[in-house]
Amino acid sequence: MNKFQGTGVALVTPFNTDGSVDYNGLKNLINHLVEGGIDYLISLGTTGETATMTKEEKKKVWAYTAEVNDNRLPLVAGIGGNNTLAVAEEMKSFDTNGYSAILSVSPYYNKPTQEGIYQHYKYLAEISPLDLMLYNVPGRTMSNMSPETTCRLAHDFKNIIATKEASGSFDQFNQIMRDKPEDFLLISGDDPVTLPMMALGASGIISVIGNALPKQFSDMVRLCMAGDFKGATPAHLSLVEFTRLAFAEGNPAGIKAALKQLGICGDTVRLPLAKASSSLEQAIALELEKLSQPA
């Protein structure tokens, strides 16, 4: 599972001003991340505004991402939802060419019990064409996957290889680290807690701000991977304000504003999301300028 150590980035989906997918912007973004030293990519996670995209659009974006990446980095596809049978059908029809794993968010809105969450992932694990990564993000799903459920799944299914944990609970992180199989990966799902989670034993991060700052973020993560947490701390602290700004008006509006400032792609988002406010855009531009200055 070394291919999923370090810094993964959950790609935004660039859109043209008319709302169509901006494939040139996506190409720019992928090349920006490869050149910035990112370790792997996630196509069409929640940061990719997947909920607003048609099945045909998703297929095209997945195929184009694999084509542009050209096996330079490991690729993960985000395929999840709150209808188990529909998610399973999407997995079965997924073109795996160029992809190494599937990241699947815990079912949202329905508020399933822990047994329901277990049975959902059991069903998916038994039909998935690729290894599976769990994704626990209670702030979006309104349903927490407990450490017991996570570790039960990890022990019961060899093709469930990791969890992206965005619960923000160190009690949960501690329990997962203690009880998981040795080769099962705990991955941070929140940029601001990457360093402390890696100090605990997490394998890295699936990042949002890495879209804009791949080198700064992946350099910090590599120091953590080498056990140099003292060396990583200044880089970690230097990113605190940018991270706060990036999420101040929701994800991915803030990070798209940063990408526009960097000339990588536009800042268009699809409704019901709205672009970052002009005041936030200005604050992000100032912070990017500050981060570009030599230390």
What does this entry look like structurally?
The protein has helices at residues 23-35, 55-69, 84-93, 114-127, 138-141, 147-156, 170-179, 194-200, 214-225, 229-238, 240-247, 253-261, 278-292, and strands at 6-10, 40-43, 75-78, 101-105, 131-136, 160-165, 185-188, 204-207. It is α/β, with parallel strands linked by helices and 295 residues long. It has one domain (2-227): Alpha-Beta Barrel (TIM Barrel), CATH 3.20.20. Helix 3 runs parallel beside helix 4 and helix 6 runs parallel beside helix 7. The chain is globular and about 50 Å long. The two termini are 34 Å apart. GO terms for molecular function: 4-hydroxy-tetrahydrodipicolinate synthase activity. InterPro entries: Aldolase_TIM (IPR013785), DapA (IPR005263), DapA-like (IPR002220).
**Number of DSSP strands?**
8
Question: Main sheet, how many strands, which sense, barrel?
Answer: 8 strands, parallel, barrel
CATH class: Alpha Beta
CATH fold-level topology: TIM Barrel
Mean pLDDT over all positions? 97
> How many DSSP H or I helices?
13
Indicate the proportion of strand residues.
Answer: 5-15%
Structural class: alpha/beta
Q: What is the CATH architecture annotation?
A: Alpha-Beta Barrel
SSE pattern, N- to C-terminal: EHEHEHEHEHHEHEHEHHHHH
Q: How many domain units?
A: 1
Low-confidence stretches: none
Per CATH, the superfamily is Aldolase class I
What proportion of the residues is helical, as a percent range? 40-55%
- Strand order within the widest beta sheet: 1-2-3-4-5-6-7-8
